[in-house]
Amino acid sequence: MALEHAILVSLLEQPGSGYELARRFERSIGRFWNATHQQIYRVLKRMESDGWVNSEAIGQDGRPDKRAYSVTGDGRDQLVEWLREPVQPEAVRHELAVKIRGAAFDDDAGRTALIAEVVRYRAEHETTLNRYLTGEKRDFPDDTDLDTGQRLQHVVLRGGIAYERMLLDWLDDVLETLRKI
């Protein structure tokens, strides 16, 4: 997937400025496709020159104008074409998993350091899971009155929640195994 597709989806859900788009990436889309503010602005500029998005300047009191972006017909066509393409399974690259396997070739001090790293890594993912659960409670308190877009956003979020829970279970297993060695 290209960043362009994630931006098109976000702008179709709600047009906005580059800054607003970057904030949405931090809050939601970034759970599954992250990008820096600079990447987003660079791609928006390219998408505008390719005719996929339009922008308009919006004046702000005491601050520079901001540019609000929306998707054009060509942009929607590009997204639809991409949506209909088959998806290939992603290759998983997991540095921590390689380190865990490599622990067989390290000494006790190295395994102790690895345990500390797994504990730190686990804490980060526990924080992510809690953020997802908080967002779910805030954004989807009642799953019965959601429109199609909201239902699809929610099912993707539930996938993120399930992934984080699975990862935490695995990390608990890793810690238990490392502590027995």
How would you describe this protein?
The chain is mainly α and 181 residues long. The protein has two domains: 3-83, Arc Repressor Mutant, subunit A; 95-180. Helix content is 65%, strand content 10%. The protein has helices spanning 3-13, 18-27, 37-49, 73-83, 95-102, 108-139, 148-180, and strands at 16-17, 53-60, 63-71. Strands 1-3-2 form a three-stranded antiparallel β-sheet. Helix 1 packs across helix 4 (73-83), helix 2 crosses helix 3 (37-49) and helix 6 (108-139) packs antiparallel against helix 7. The two termini are 41 Å apart. The model has no long low-confidence stretch (mean pLDDT 92).
Describe the SSE topology:
Blueprint: H1 3-13, E1 16-17, H2 18-27, H3 37-49, E2 53-60, E3 63-71, H4 73-83, H5 95-102, H6 108-139, H7 148-180
Antiparallel strand pairs: 1-3, 2-3
Helix pairs in contact: 1-4, 2-3, 6-7
Strand fraction equals: 5-15%
- Give the total of domains: 2
The SSE string, one letter per element, is HEHHEEHHHH
Instruction: Sum up the overall morphology in one term.
Output: elongated
Give the low-pLDDT segments. none
**Rg:** 21 Å
Largest sheet features = 3 strands, antiparallel
Class by alpha and beta content = mainly alpha
Compute the separation of the termini in Å: 41 Å
User: How many β-strands, per DSSP?
Assistant: 3
InterPro entries: Tscrpt_reg_PadR_C, Tscrpt_reg_PadR_N, WH-like_DNA-bd_sf, WH_DNA-bd_sf
Keywords: DNA-binding
GO molecular function: DNA binding
Protein name: DNA-binding PadR family transcriptional regulator
